[in-house]
Design brief:
By secondary structure, the chain is an alpha+beta fold. It has one domain: Roll (Nuclear Transport Factor 2, Chain: A). The protein is built from 6 helices and 7 strands. Strands 1, 2, 3, 4, 5, 6 and 7 form a 7-stranded antiparallel beta sheet that branches. Helix 1 packs across helix 5. The longest helix has 17 residues.
């Protein structure tokens, strides 16, 4: 059970056809592109805001159901998130804001749609502001209308399949971007 607790904490620090018109290409060589899927943008913002603002009911609701089930269920996951945040706050780490505004192409993965989104969280760590990036697996179980999320910081394409068996290995997980200092 402790392994699932640890894995879920790491994971939350956190249609049937691919639709080419959902994402536009950037010219910087990055695998990420500006998100044009309004449902993904909306759900990504709700998820990151819920995490930043300690709305752990919403975070668990918007986490991939396999993660919640394998991690001990809703109640356990919410308590874990709360305990983790309390510990971080005791170490003078404050969550200030977050965003999700870039994603890879959306691809079919079994009965789900998947893409990788880049999440940015602004933190105050003992008076120093930093922006920390994470890659999240965004999964739609209903054809792109609603999205669920999984933090990929501790996963590669083979290990994520333990939690999300439908994961399509054609979806390449980009390297995590380095943390940046943010001007006050």
């Amino acid at each position: 059970m402790k392994i699932f607790t640890f894995l879920f904490a790491l994971l939350c620090t956190t249609s049937m056809f691919a639709q080419e018109d959902l994402i536009i290409e950037d010219d910087d060589g990055s695998p990420f592109k500006t998100i044009e899927n309004k449902g993904l943008t909306k759900d990504g913002k709700v998820f990151v805001d819920a995490f930043v603002n300690k709305n752990f009911d919403k975070v668990v609701e918007m986490s991939h159901p396999n993660i919640v089930e394998m991690g001990g269920g809703d109640t356990f996951m919410k308590q874990l998130l709360n305990d983790d945040r309390t510990m971080m706050e005791s170490q003078k780490i404050k969550f200030l804001s977050g965003s999700i505004d870039e994603a890879t192409d959306i691809i079919k993965a079994g009965d789900e749609l998947h893409c990788i989104v880049s999440q940015a969280i602004v933190l105050d760590i003992g008076g120093t502001k930093v922006k920390s990036y994470s890659n999240l697996l965004a999964a739609s179980l209903d054809g792109g209308n609603n999205w669920k999320f999984v933090n990929l910081d501790q996963h590669d394409a083979s290990s994520i399949k333990v939690f999300v068996p439908s994961y399509n290995p054609e979806l390449i997980i980009p390297e995590r971007r380095p943390t940046e200092n943010v001007a006050n």
